[in-house]
Amino acid sequence: MNTVLILMSIHHEWANLIYSKYKTIELRKTAPKERGPFEVYLYDTSSHHVTGIMEVSHVQEIPYVTDELCSRACLDREAVEAYKNQGNGKLYAWHIDSASFYDNDWLTVADALNDPKATRPPQSWQYRKR
Fold first, then answer.
1. 62-81 pLDDT, tens per residue?
2. Any residues with CB less than 8 A from the CB of 71 and at least 6 apart, and which?
3. pTM greater than 0.90
């Protein structure tokens, strides 16, 4: 596994789909310079904690939306197209290899970012301090 570690904010319903292995692609409008593999802490916006971690095998820019992409992202085509058209019109597929739920042994943002001064999660994602 690469030494890159990322903290990603995610809605509860999407996190649950990742943990249950239904959602195998996470779509984002931005991507890290390193295209994989790497680990991502998942910050659940409902619980306000890091509830688990996922392993991302690679990230790829998506030039056009396909039915398979929508299915693996657990979204309909209209939602994906609308999301892609926001901002700069770019879309990246973060391919999820596996994910682990922490049960009740959750991390705070400060712990996940390895920064005792951190109090807020990222808007989308950010690198973890080493």
1. 999 999 999 999 999 999 99
2. none
3. yes
